[in-house]
Structures are given as structure tokens and as C-alpha cells.
Amino acid sequence: MSTSTSNRAPAAGAPATINVRRSQLGRVRGAGSAQSGVHHWYVERATAIALVPLTIWFIISILRLVGSSQPAVAHWAGNPINAALLLALVAMTFHHMQLGLQVVLEDYVPDRKRLMSYVLLIKGAALLLGLIAAISVLKLALV
After folding, report:
1. What is the DSSP string of 14-46?
2. Any idea which fold 34-142 has?
3. pLDDT tens digits, residue range 97-109?
4. For the chain, how big is the Rg over CA atoms in Å?
5. Is 3 in a helix, a strand, or coil?
6. Quick one: angle between helices 70-78 and 80-108, nearest 10?
């Protein structure tokens, strides 16, 4: 586990080396990810799982509403269950989108400052677009 050191003096012109007697685990401890990626991964999977039934419900509902008038669609969206499911779909979709784009940026943008600015831009855009969609659903449901 520990590294061995030699008592020989370094060769002339060679840089002196310092050997530290630490285990491999001791050398890497504290240099890891701090587990922040686990939460991100878990939330991304949870939103994906939540989106499956919400998307199926939305597609079936839209197919039933094909050819309906605007007041009929507004009446459908005015149902509290449908409005709540639409809001959940909007929230999960934009949050999942933001998480996925953040992973892509973290994988392909090497510059730390540029990465942080891109991540903030993506989060802001997702929040703004999500709010616009949520207000649209609420306006349709409450009219």
C-alpha cells in the first residue's frame, strides 16, 4: 500500500524527488466529485420517469380534442385535474431540458468561466420559457 523510498542520492543534474509514504486512497481522498453529480443524475432520471405518464396522458388528451372548438379546449383545460397535470408537464419538461443541456455543456465546454455563464443562461432561459408556458396554461384554465 505504501510507496517505498530509496536512500540513494539523486544523480547529478536530476531534480530531487520527495517520496511521501501515503496509501493510494490517502493520495486521492478529497480530490473526488463531492457527490454533487449523483443528485443531478437522480433528478434527471426522476423527471424522465415522471414525464413518461404525463406525456402519454397529454398525447391521448390532445388526440381526443382534435377538431374541438376553442371553448371546448378551454373547458377541458379549466378542469382542475387537467390544469394541474398540464402544469406538472410544463414544469417537468423544462426542468428536464435544463438538466440535460447542462450535462451536455459540462461535457463539451472546457473553459470554466464560459461553462458557468452558459449554465446560467440555460437555467434562465428554461425558467423564463417555463413561466411563460405556466402562465399560458393558467390563463387558459382560469378564463
Report:
1. SPP-------HHHHHTT-S-TTHHHHHHHHHHH
2. 3 helical TM bundles of succinate and fumarate reductases (1.20.1300)
3. 999 999 999 889 8
4. 27
5. coil
6. 90
Q: Mean of the pLDDT values across residues 46-50?
A: 96
Which tens digit of pLDDT belongs to each residue from 16-36?
Answer: 676 767 777 666 665 555 556
CB atoms within 10 A of CB 39: 9
What are the sequence ranges of the domains in the chain? 34-142
Distances in Å between the Cα of 72 and the Cα atoms of 6, 12, 57, 108, 138 are: 85, 90, 18, 46, 16
HSE value, Cβ hemisphere, 13 Å, CA-based, for 37: 6
